[in-house]
Write a structure and sequence with these properties.
globular; Rossmann fold; about 140 residues; alpha/beta; about 55% helix; 5 strands
Length: about 140
């Protein structure tokens, strides 16, 4: 199975004090299991860094620690899907066609990465966000509880 994990899954997977840590970590480990391929949108690397370094946890996660978490747990294990100009153009078209505006575009970028990588499932805790930008996802969108 080809799985793409979004930021809402990746952050709790690596921060033990977060309420969804167990579910996030299980999803991450399952995606690394035999026969599976783990993907992550390049955009999510920046999102994970931003969230990790702003979490209200003690001790705070420094930029260096966030970078190490990303390097050792995401970049070393997942295939990072980068988007080109045509991909961004497709996302802008999709947003306009769906009448969506604002920060929703960031979820649409992750959907575009999932489509580009031809993943079987995109895992998220934010189902409503992704259903808006990927209305035809069906069972390809796996919403964690």
């Amino acid at each position: 199975m080809k799985a793409l994990l979004d930021t809402s899954v990746l952050v709790p997977a690596f921060v033990c004090s977060l309420p969804r840590h167990g579910v996030g970590l299980s999803c991450y480990r399952d995606a690394l299991s035999a026969g599976s391929e783990l993907f992550v949108a390049a955009h999510s690397l920046a999102e994970v860094y931003a969230v990790l370094t702003r979490l209200p946890v003690s001790p705070r996660i420094s930029g260096g620690m966030a970078r190490r978490i990303i390097r050792e747990n995401i970049c070393a294990e997942a295939k990072v899907v980068s988007l080109g100009v045509r991909d961004h153009d497709a996302v802008l078209d999709r947003m306009a066609d769906l009448g969506l505006t604002g920060g929703t575009i960031y979820d649409a970028l992750i959907v575009q990465a999932a489509l580009k990588a031809k993943v079987d499932r995109l895992f998220t805790f934010n189902g409503a966000h992704f259903r808006r930008v990927w209305p035809g996802a069906g069972d390809r969108l796996a919403v964690l509880a």
